[in-house]
């Protein structure tokens, strides 16, 4: 049901949004809430189509995704209105993507989401937007090709694409999986497939970047873990080596890069890349029983905080023209509410306790230690410490420097509600961990 | 039933946020939000009290369960909790009510009420939680709130310092609680307060472990309840608004230490920890009572009396009578709140003059306050039929029956001396002629609803709760309660008190000249100095922390920090920049470069796989 509601709303919204954005937003929010309700009530796509199964963890992820998208659509204004319809389609595709238990459908929906993301970033207003969009598109195209290459290789050796019954002992399977992973790493912005992301996230419209870096990445992270779980467990040596290597490489490079950036959006872009590095740790630790909880927790926590910071940056850029660290000096005087929420979400990204970012890291790292990868976790911890450097640096600019101008901005109601929803998510999953553990217990 | 529990858990914090936000919009709203929330909290406690069936409310909830790590967060409400809840929320509500006028002129009311509600919330959390972890959270909430409230007038240096001092002193105790939690978590396998008692009763705990854990917990209680040697903060906490003092000293914070020992009473009695509790408490009671004799400021006298009376309650627990200790805690909470609020009224009337020697003759201008304060004083002094008499009598009797010589002697002296300092205070404030020109002139008139009503309620309570003393005891400890009985103790106490009373009245009403003469003697002055400065414990602690901790340890750490850590940190900066420059080379912004890297990445994976496959 939720799938149908989302797609129907997605078709309906374009009729309204040219003339009346309020109705369009309303439809979108209602659709998201209805879809979330259906998922909460336990209905999955599986009741309509074969190849879709939703376990508790998937439903939790879908619920979080829909709530986040509802929050985003509330926060949108002005020329970001085309995003509303695109988000509805994205939500529909993501619900299917998360629920599928068929590798073929996984690949198809991965492409669908990739295409939606190109359309998302194609909301071009200036030269920078265009540059970012083109980079995302070209990188995505190359990645798609590589994924299909890998998939073709894989399909030689298996006669079923069902996650449970596919043949993973084929001659080319390992190579095929490696090639597919390389393509998927592009979406997860794993170094060295990250180049496009650092630029695209900071150059495209920040609202689109919020969806791109927050929502889509979390969804891909979670669905990919489910799709590849069988391979990860079957080839422990390759899994540990590849994922540990890329996890370490990604977080280290991204953190060092973020440390010296002057553009706020660029810092957030690199922080997003660094988080991909941490999120790979539970992949490497697939052998541990906590890996599923680690991935789910990371996806859930990350979706709230990353989306929130980019949306706030979007507001700040629109109202105050914020681009560089210089521009957010003394921000708390100009925009106290923005500053406050921004700070909390940054703390969450940095992994301060009682916020979702902390527990997600804790669980993911715990899974790593449980699988015996303490050396990866140690490096990740050092990296986390390094990362606090640039998050706090932003906060220092906000609270401890004198502002240049004296204009004061208010947060719009829609934006405020949206931000409060995201903040509630960050706080809730920072304090209550039971939901996620219970959801992943059956895995 | 559960609605009441949820209300108690959540309402204080919601109220605190609301009071602050609405108060920012319109200042009066802050008070009204606090008043309503305070009343709702009291109502919720009352509902729990009335609807309580025979079994305790026991809600277990696992906060985090992951791997072999399990952090519980449970709610456990039995009679003891309900008594504490009624004290905390009831007195808290009256305190908020009283603040309407007392804090009426303060521009920072939203901040004040938000902090007060947060404070009450911390106390509630402490008394209804089932585990040491939850209790510790509530404990720390209160520590934070007390810091914020004591330094409420943060622009005054003394207030800011006092807040910091309260925080540091109580924190010092808290470290031990944390250590106790860790010890129990690892060695006893549980931090469940109820289960710890059960294990102690069944004799399943290792004696040494239990003793160490109990003593560590008692260290925390020493910090929070102002026992020797961590009491100086209690006196300096008087820098906060008087309503805050009433809240800290009457309704909430200082009771928490006694509560935690009472909650773990079986656990404490399992080991010999109670013996130490009794002795430390008796010493503290003596120190508090003697120091209270010579203080000048109204609030300082009351603060030392708080210390002394809390210690008396602790002695009750320490000699093995849970009933006596808890009864005295309840009675003390009521009359101390009354005394502090009366003192607040006096201070309000007298234009914030706090020096008792500069007041005087206020009975003419504020007869009602004088009456109410007299009732509170009589209760504190332990004069029948006021409630203080019964509980104090019970504690002293228990000490005589079960305590050792040291405990017996000191707690009796402390109990007897309370009539001396409180009579002295009352006489100085209300009798004689005004000794200061400000007080003699115009005074604030206390309003009926906002000031006299809460005082009246409390005065009424402290008198009439005497009727239910035995009911309270039975409510807390159950029916099988052995009342300590020492023949002739009551008569002895009352006679001594009468003699002391007459001496004090004689000296302060009739013989001020004689008093001056005595006081000018060199030897008396020395004693006076020692008592006035609270036996120089604060100076000693300051000396230790200044010379040993700051002077030696901190200096060494600083040297290490400056020359080793800083050097490394500074070099790190250069290092990160170097790394950044290397990495940056790959980020030209050209899509071609990125695609090159992409291919490189693919190549790495494929080659790695090939090597692995070959290796396999």
Secondary structure layout:
The complex is a heterodimer of chains A (443) and B (616).
Chain A: H1 2-17, H2 21-40, H3 56-75, H4 82-99, H5 103-121, H6 127-157, H7 173-187, H8 195-203, H9 206-234, H10 236-259, H11 264-279, H12 281-284, H13 291-320, H14 331-334, H15 336-350, H16 356-370, H17 374-400, H18 413-431, H19 434-440
Chain B: H1 2-25, H2 27-51, E1 57-59, E2 62-66, E3 69-72, E4 75-77, H3 79-102, H4 109-128, H5 132-150, H6 157-188, H7 193-202, H8 207-225, H9 232-236, H10 242-251, H11 253-263, H12 265-270, H13 273-292, H14 298-318, H15 322-349, H16 367-381, H17 387-402, H18 405-430, H19 437-440, H20 448-464, H21 469-477, H22 489-510, H23 512-519, H24 522-532, H25 537-584, H26 591-615
Antiparallel strand pairs in B: 1-4, 2-3
Number of beta strands of chain B? 4
Shape of chain A: globular
Biggest sheet of chain B: strands, sense, closure? 2 strands, antiparallel
Structural class of chain A: mainly alpha
User: Could you name the ranges of chain B where pLDDT drops below 50 across 5 or more consecutive residues?
Assistant: none
What is the rounded distance between the termini of chain A? Answer: 25 Å
Task: Report on the biggest sheet of chain A.
Answer: none
Structural class computed from helices and strand pairing of chain B: mainly alpha
> Strand tally of chain A, please?
0
Runs of chain A in which pLDDT lies below 50 for 5 or more consecutive residues are none
| Straight-line distance between termini of chain B | 64 Å
Q: Which whole number gives the mean pLDDT of chain B?
A: 84
Strand content of chain B: under 5%
Strand content of chain A: under 5%
Q: How confident overall, as mean pLDDT of chain A?
A: 89
Count helical runs of chain B.
26
